[in-house]
Amino acid sequence: MHKNQGDRLKTLRTKHNYTLKHVGKQLNLDPSTISKYENNKRKIDTDSLKRFADFYNVDIKSLIPNTTQPLENPKIYHIKTPLIIGYTKETITLITSFFIGLAIYTLYPADLLLIMVVFFGIAICTRSFLQLFIARERPRHTIKIFKQETLTIEHPYDEGTIRSNLRLDNYAMVWLTIFLFFIVGFYLTEIKSTTDAFILIGLLLANYALYITLIILNIARKTDQKQLPYDATNKLLNTTKYRLFHIITTLTSITAFFFHTRLEQPRTIYILTYICIIIYTLISQGFVFKKMLFYKQYRLIKNR
After folding, report:
1. Distance in angstroms (rounded) separating the CA atoms of residues 135 and 227
2. Has residue 119 got a pLDDT over 80?
3. 183 close to 190: Cβ distance less than 8 angstroms
4. pTM
5. Which end of the chain has a smaller Cβ tally under 10 Å, C or N?
């Protein structure tokens, strides 16, 4: 155990193989001043001590004389950066173009429009695959946490704003439920195929199960919190459920658009169903993009 503060500073510097010049440049201190600190020829002020602790990534108490705070064996996290990867502007543009093409194809079925829709679909799948591949190769940031430190993730929004967003999320689920109910109801009155009916009912049940789950998580405050322990990140700040939501709602929208081409024209039910599909698609896609933007804003905070 080191007897004085200077020895502790020198031990940390030599342990990292840093020169006095390098440490001085990083901390904006003169190397001669650091040398005096390490040789106990000059008393270090509190502000400089905190800067040393942050630079060496140790608890400031370990640099205070007459303490037994250990310098070794911290808990080490290898964290991928950025913390959350959301949808890029290019991906959102591709998805928007895909649905615009699909909506036009529903009204005016043409081979050229179908080719365009397929092209955008392949582009979206390719980009999503590449993004997943890049996410696996993200650089990792190493953070050391000592016994009296905690690592949390914190959102810049205040608690009131977060609660307001959760209420809006629940309203979105209710509206999606209503519009999807009308869409499936309209189709079941027109479509005679048993297979098509099973597909529609299956998508309806999958959507409802997902909506109920998300509403329960929101009410129980198991997601979208101001601050969370980093250890709970994978449980509480898991974007998988929203990516699953995106997959299910996207499949539902695509299926609804293609089924719409089988309805007879002109009919009131044809127009009402088309309007419901458009609104359902806008709400579901907008919801996912909003949630991904929300999650991207979480930041890591180390508390002493």
Report:
1. 24
2. yes
3. no
4. 0.70
5. N
